[in-house]
Amino acid sequence: MSYCSKLVTTLKPYIPGELPESPDIIKLNTNENPYPPSPKAIEAMRRAINDDLRLYPDPESRALKHAIAKRHGVDDDRVFAGNGSDEVLALSFLAFCDPDAPVRFFDITYSFYKVYASLFRLPANIIKLNDDFTVPLDKCLQNSGTLIFPNPNAPTTIALSSDEVRFILENNRDCVVIVDEAYSEFGSDTAIALLPEFENLLVVRTASKSHALAGIRVGYAIGSPALIKSLDCVKNCFNSYPVDRVAQAGAEASMYDDEYTAAVLEKIKRTRDRAVLKLREFGFACPDSSNNFLFVTHPKMNALDLAAELKRRRILVRHFPAERIDNHLRITVGTDEEMERLYSALGEIFS
Known about the structure:
Largest sheet: 5 strands, mixed
CATH superfamily of the largest domain: Type I PLP-dependent aspartate aminotransferase-like (Major domain)
Structural class: alpha/beta
CATH topology of the largest domain: Aspartate Aminotransferase, domain 2
Strand order of the largest sheet: 2-8-7-6-5
Radius of gyration: 20 Å
Number of helices: 11
Number of strands: 12
Number of domains: 2
Distance between the termini: 55 Å
């Protein structure tokens, strides 16, 4: 006898990237930052581990939200903080999507969107990307049902310009538009500058990637006070204390350490741009990337086989068994040393 709900039997959950079995495996499959967090963030978290852990954290994450607001030049009441951007996205689906207006997202995009639509029993209007994985702007103009997309897109690495995002917003003024900017600091325009013009715009970000804080799970959203109030309402129906004391302290300190974050981002972008050229030398089709990862395919080797060969050489990359991209790999940008090991392994494989 099954005790599960009918819903559970229909769900296809998100599958996270494989965890390495030993520390000598190079992990290029989960888009983590290859460098440590800000030393100021580490010190702040150490200070937060004290007797006050017996107390609940600030349910509103006020100090953290103030740091986020200051970093992005917005008022505090335009900021929402949550337990990773995945939770912020889930709460956004609950706050802004309705069964009578299908939520809209791309066919090749962050796979959690489809999971959330199924989990919350929402119909979905899936927009097919062009053959070159660019966004068909003319297909994004329905002005009905929440529209959500990553910018830059994941896993394709392709970014929309600020003018293109503005065009989408101008043609969707009657519904919420969520721009998922998990990777925007690696090279794309941000939509935050458009917030004063569009009350229906919500920008979702994370401390996991550019701030190297994936281990503490902090995400946030920036939008109009009305949208933030709706998120707060849903949050307080689910978990009033989503960000713990240590996470609040670390993320707050990191938001203030722009110098460190900028230096790390610059290192990653230099390594990424060199990696694009190196992989093309090996014969990969590898578009320029605005993310901290590359999206590649090789004309002479099946992607799943190639991932297996790299794993044999103790390098993990990500393969998605999904329509249209099942012969592609997503490769996280690691340190220069890690990438050299990747190039060496590819040299063996293609020799």
